[in-house]
Design goal:
- The complex is a heterodimer of chains A (about 240) and B (about 160).
- Chain A is globular, with a radius of gyration of 17 Å.
- In chain A, α1 runs parallel beside α2 (about 55-75).
- Chain A is an alpha/beta fold and about 240 residues long.
- Chain A is built from eight helices and twelve strands.
- In chain A, β6 and β7 (about 115-120) form a beta hairpin.
- Chain B is of the alpha+beta class and about 160 residues long.
- Chain B has four helices and eight strands, in the order ββββββαβαααβ.
- Chain B has helices at about 70-75, 95-105, 105-130, 140-155; strands at about 5-10, 15-20, 25, 35-50, 55-60, 65, 80-90, 155.
- In chain B, β1 (about 5-10) and β2 (about 15-20) form a beta hairpin.
- The chains are: A alpha/beta (about 240), B alpha+beta (about 160).
- β1 (about 5) of chain A pairs parallel with β8 of chain B.
Chain lengths: ~240, ~160
């Protein structure tokens, strides 16, 4: 298993949720992978790429054919595809691992130019997940059928998360109270990283904590389509318009 | 040159940041200490005394860590570390390490990975020394082989 890599050109996407009936990933990723191939970028799927927890296996399998084909094309073109495991795809870790070509990893320490970059899904800092992973999985699975009644349940979840953060901030009496993900990113940045990239929250973010210490969230491909572009140590959050 | 850093700050509750000037010692072989270090900026040279003089084990850079054996076992330092140019390090005592592991679980993974790499290297050396796997152990000082082997195994260049 490789966790330390040197990369001059890398694209990071997260939370594709391929298999979710309302994920736009399976429709858009083909063009995105073509963009990666033309630009000679390696690709990192930063967790929750495939939806095994909430979607039916049949729909995940159907939607993933095109995605795997795109990944195979990148690998055949001599590019690398890394897959950081998230919380919706832990069960697929071994399955993906034996599927040759994709490099499965729990997180990546990327050296690009002079920058050290941590790429990690971020669920390990989610208080709900850490407090009770089994309950978290159960509640996530239970929410699965909701996708067929109200497919945009992810938007509700994002609203809930946002409201929860606001309540926590208000209770603590601090306007600028930092989120748990920002705190986690700061912990990592103190270990000699210049940039930390998470996914998981579905909220694209780009925050400069202080000169040389930056946090990004690569967002999601359920409602949007954002990605992080790394090129010789330069890091940018971009929206996929393709 | 003493171990005293040029600056030190109670940065984050249980962890401490220290800055060292070029050639200052961060820790010395044989001394008692229960701290480990993560390089926040700059470089650090790790070396050990040997009958043939100083043996350089590794030059470490930003993000690398060292001194974990003392913090885990509470035994005297196995090697010395010296700043190469100005260097800033994050200092962790056993208590601070536990807090770090609780809040930054991937650090535990990296630490265990390092120790696992050492066990693997030692196993290979043992086999070589017993004559089963060739004479790799005879090519150079054992400790240097250990560090080189770790670096090769753990650094994936893509």
């Amino acid at each position: 298993m490789i966790i330390d890599i040197e990369q001059e050109r890398l694209l990071v996407v997260s939370d594709l949720h391929v298999g979710n009936p309302y994920s736009s990933a399976s429709r858009k990723l083909g063009a995105f992978f073509e963009y990666a191939e033309r630009g000679r970028y390696n690709v990192c799927i930063n967790g929750d790429g495939f939806e095994i927890l909430q979607a039916r296996f049949a729909s995940m399998a159907a939607d993933s054919v095109g995605v795997f084909r795109g990944i195979r094309r990148l690998i055949d073109a001599g590019l690398k595809v890394f897959y950081v495991v998230g919380n919706h795809d832990i069960a697929l870790e071994n399955f993906l691992n034996v599927w040759s070509g994709i490099q499965i990893t729990p997180f990546l320490n990327v050296t690009s130019g002079d920058a050290r970059i941590r790429v990690e899904h971020g669920h390990l800092y989610d208080p709900s997940f850490v407090r009770s992973p089994r309950f978290y999985e159960w509640i996530t699975r239970a929410a699965g059928p909701l996708l067929h009644i109200y497919p945009d349940v992810y938007r509700l979840w994002a609203v809930y998360e946002g409201a929860k953060q606001q309540v926590v901030r208000a209770l603590r009496g601090g306007k600028g109270e930092r989120s748990v993900y920002h705190e986690a990113a700061r912990m990592l940045l103190r270990r000699g990283f210049d940039v930390v990239i998470f996914g998981h929250t579905h909220q694209p973010e780009d925050i400069l904590f202080e000169p040389g210490r930056r946090y990004l969230n690569s967002g999601n491909w359920v409602q949007g389509g954002t990605f992080v572009e790394i090129e010789q140590g330069q890091v940018a959050l971009r929206r996929w318009e393709g | 040159m003493f171990n005293k850093p040029i600056s030190s700050s109670e940065a984050h509750g249980t962890e401490l940041s220290r800055t060292y000037e070029d050639a200052q010692f961060i820790c010395r072989e044989g001394e008692s200490s229960a701290e480990m270090f993560v390089i926040q900026s700059g470089s650090v040279r790790v070396f050990k005394a040997s009958p043939r003089g100083e043996l350089e084990l590794a030059v470490l850079h930003k993000g690398d860590f060292f001194g974990e054996m003392s913090v885990l076992e509470g035994l005297p330092r196995d090697a010395s570390a010296q700043a190469l140019g100005d260097a800033e390090v994050l200092v962790m005592t056993p208590g601070a390490l536990l807090v770090r592991l609780r809040r930054d679980p991937t650090f535990a993974f990296e630490l265990l990975r390092r120790l696992s790499g050492r066990v693997r290297s030692l196993n290979a050396r043992l086999v070589a020394t017993l004559g089963v796997g060739g004479a790799a152990a005879a090519r150079g000082p054992a400790e240097a082989l250990l560090y080189q082997s770790e670096a090769k195994e753990q650094k994936g260049v893509a």
